[in-house]
Amino acid sequence: MVIPAKRYACYYGMGRLNALAQYDLVIVQAAHYPTAEVTTLRNAGITVCAYLTLGESREQEIPTEWVVHDPLTGAAAQNEGWRTTYLDCRTPGWQTEILERRVPRLCEQGFDGLLLDTLDVQERFPETRPGVIALVRRIKAQFPQLQLIPNRGFSILSAIADVSDALLFEAFSTYATGEGYAAWDKVALAWTEERARESRMSMGEKQVLALDYAAPEDLALRAWAQKRAAEHSWASFISTHALDWLP
Q1: Which of 25, 40, 196, 229: disulfide with 5, CB 3.0–4.6 Å?
Q2: What is the distance between the alpha carbons of residues 147 and 159, in angstroms, rounded to a whole number?
Q3: Type and span of the H or E element at 12
Q4: Alpha helices, DSSP H only, in 45-111?
Q5: What's the confidence (pLDDT) of residue 247?
Q6: CA–CA separation, 123 vs 126, rounded Å?
Q7: Distance between CA atoms of 141 and 2, rounded to whole angstroms?
Q8: Domains of the chain: which residue ranges?
Q9: Does position 154 have pLDDT exceeding 90, yes or no?
Q10: Residue-averaged pLDDT of the chain
Q11: Containing H/E element for 240?
């Protein structure tokens, strides 16, 4: 189980070790932090987790057998918003890539755990859902020492909660609009409240981390999102949509 974090950061920039040392738990991009820097943070008593995408990839060349194919065109399905390709977690090749290459490399760097992102590929392509669940469970079975933090994945949370050590609830109260940042409207806030209730049922006493977005200078929006997370007794982190800014 993840060490309870009063303060956590999800930071995809580089460096800033002194700033990151002010947190109990940090989630970073592994490529930005060599083993020596991961060790420095861990020696300071900080839990250090690496970002790992399971359902999408920005890589230019991906083996055809790993991708989800558009049922109409047969082409690799794309997430145009992030310019990523959707991956099919059912495929043995992609599972092997994760379990035999990517996760072992992160272990060698000394990371304590993983943020498992893009699990919601199975929302758009329900046929891939068994593969997503199986891959998460296989990661925990093969690397039990790693703390796993799924990002959202609400529709499969009940199937992976027992192998998850915490939950990240991205965009709990606010979101990036494309032109800036805003609070969710009443309908969306009611939806996130319902997901929060379901998450508590699935996760039990395990920690939930709220991740929200706001401009650094928008103190009112930041304070409101932090207050809403606190009402659920959740640790809160609020940054830019690129997660390249630390308060």
Answers
A1: 25
A2: 17
A3: none
A4: 92-97, 103-109
A5: 85
A6: 6
A7: 17
A8: 8-239
A9: yes
A10: 95
A11: none
Distance from C-alpha of 46 to C-alpha of 179, rounded to nearest angstrom = 35
Q: What is the pLDDT of residue 59?
A: 83
The SS3 call for residue 18 is helix
Phi, psi for residue 190 in degrees, rounded to 5 = -65, -35
Cα separation, 184 vs 176, in Å, equals 10
| Residue 242 CA: distances (Å) to CA of 53, 165, 207 | 15, 25, 24
- 8-239 classified as CATH 1.10.3720.10: no
- Supply the DSSP symbol for 114: E
The closest alpha carbon to 98, from 130, 69, 136, belongs to 136
Q: Cβ distance 7 to 23 under 8 Å? A: yes
DSSP character at residue 76: B
φ, ψ dihedrals at 147, nearest 5°: -90, 125
What is the model's pTM? 0.95
Asked if residues 213 and 181 have their Cβ atoms less than 8 Å apart, the reply is yes
The answer for residues whose C-beta is within 8 angstroms of residue 5's C-beta and 6 or more apart is 23, 24, 25, 47, 207, 209, 235
Which range among 62-76, 107-121, 167-181 shows the weakest confidence by mean pLDDT? 62-76
- Write out the two tokens for 69: 């194919």
Structural tokens at position 226: 């932090």
**pLDDT tens across 214-238, in order?**
999 999 999 999 999 999 999 999 9
